[in-house]
Amino acid sequence: MDSAILHEKILYPVVRVRAGQAGGSGVLIYSEPDPKDESKFINILLTCQHVIDGAIKIRDEWDAILKREVKRDVLDEVVIEVFDYDGSKVVSANSTTGQIIAYDKHHDLAAVKLNSNTRQLPHVASVIPREQIDCLQLFDPVWVSGCSLLHDPFPNPGTITYLREVIDQKAYLMQNASSIFGNSGGGLFQGSGEEFNLLGLTSRVTVTQLGFGLDVQTWMGFSTHPDRLYEFFDHQELQFLYDKNDDFYSALSRREGRRKDALRSILLDTQGVTESNNE
After folding, report:
1. Which helix (H) or strand (E) holds 37?
2. Is there a smaller number of Cβ atoms within 10 Å at the N or the C end of the chain?
């Protein structure tokens, strides 16, 4: 297998993510010209929601239109380190801030847009096409690539060991490629030749209690099932991440439309309660 391709497809798209006191990994999946300024690029990564949870604050605030308190999320910026390489050597780790554009606690997924880094990023991961998901099999070779214990990114090889493990009503792929804390948000990759795909994000490891201590089974890791990646994209109106006919600003417009529809629904419900009470 070509070592240069493994570097480009598995190692180079991985970044380090920090939010508050926590940190983990992320995978760049989008770097396309900004439709409003084609001299700049929109760069987006995926990570796990629990990695950036420290940047999400939920507050009760009074809404003057609804005449009631509503819950609002306040999103702090997160810190992203994008690595430059000379072959296998890290040349630099370029730190930039990122804006959380979507997150889902149930799926444990989040999408983050890089703020000041608007240059084209040459190495982004390709999400496995929907029609190829059912072709995955046990013994398929895979690589986990992430920032274990917040180290610079590095890959670990393994195989798929279970196709659909359901934990807390969520589906995962299980693999025996070693992973540990800090790998969360990093990628599970599969492929051959020049075609490699992102299957999911590393999100759980198996921990057992032995007496008063904990033992981590690094060879029994769980990654987001690829079906859930597409559920997240579609529910969050992020179809532009896999559909070339869509774009970032159209996605923002749809998300804003859904937000307004939700507020309108709350307002109508509130008015209905008020009218009922007046009767």
Report:
1. strand 37-47
2. C
pLDDT per position as a tens digit, 169-203:
999 999 999 998 899 999 999 998 889 999 999 99
Residues sharing a CB contact under 8 Å with residue 101, sequence separation 6 or more, in sequence order: 44, 111, 112, 113, 238, 252
Q: pTM of the full predicted structure?
A: 0.90
The alpha carbons of the chain give a radius of gyration, in whole angstroms, of: 20
Residue 44, classed as helix, strand or coil, is strand
The pLDDT-based confidence of 276 (bands split at 50, 70, 90) is very low
How does 106-128 read in b/e, with b if 16+ C-beta sit within 10 Å?
A: ebbbbbbbbeebbeebebbbebb
3-state class of 234 per DSSP?
A: helix
| Cα 3-9-12 angle, rounded to 5 deg | 95
Location of structure tokens 């396309």: 32
Using DSSP bridges, classify how beta strands 170-175 and 213-224 pair: parallel, antiparallel or unpaired.
antiparallel
Q: Max Cα separation, the chain?
A: 75
DSSP three-state, residue 132: helix
Give the β-pairing of 68-75 and 141-146.
unpaired
The tokens for 140 are: 């398929």
Neighbouring C-beta atoms of residue 30, cutoff 10 Å: 22
Angle (CA) 32-38-43 rounded to 5° is: 30
β partners of residue 99: 113
Rounded Cα–Cα distance for residues 25 and 12 (Å): 12
| Reduced 3-state DSSP string for 134-148 | HHCCCCCEEEEEECH
